[in-house]
Amino acid sequence: MNNIVIKMLLAVVVVFISSIYLPEIYWSTFKYKIDRPNISYSPIIKDLLISNSGKGISKIKDRKGKSYTRDEYEAIMPQLNFAQLSQHG
Asked: Tens digits of per-residue pLDDT, 25-75?
């Protein structure tokens, strides 16, 4: 009877420890990153802005396909860039 309880307890401990460390080992071995777009709403142009950043390049577009530079993006997103905009006047 005691032997069965010890085996079950050992199995529970192994499963618990594996559930902590196996995902970490998996994600460190298979580095697969999904670049998800950042979507935000601009009250200035009253449209959604989609920002894709991949391989060091950041592209900012609205739903109609118009591209924006970083300075234009900061100007049309005052709720996020207040400190930056106040420094530039």
From this structure: 888 888 777 777 888 888 888 888 888 876 666 788 888 888 888 878 777
> Rounded to 5 degrees, what are φ and ψ at 52?
-105, 125
- CA neighbor of 19 nearest in space, from 11, 29, 7, 31: 11
Radius of gyration of the chain (CA): 25
- Domain limits of the chain? 1-32, 38-88
The tokens describing 73, both together, are: 């993006």
Ordered strands of the 67-68 beta sheet: 38-42, 47-54, 57-62, 67-68
Q: Are 62 and 50 in contact (CB under 8 A)?
A: yes
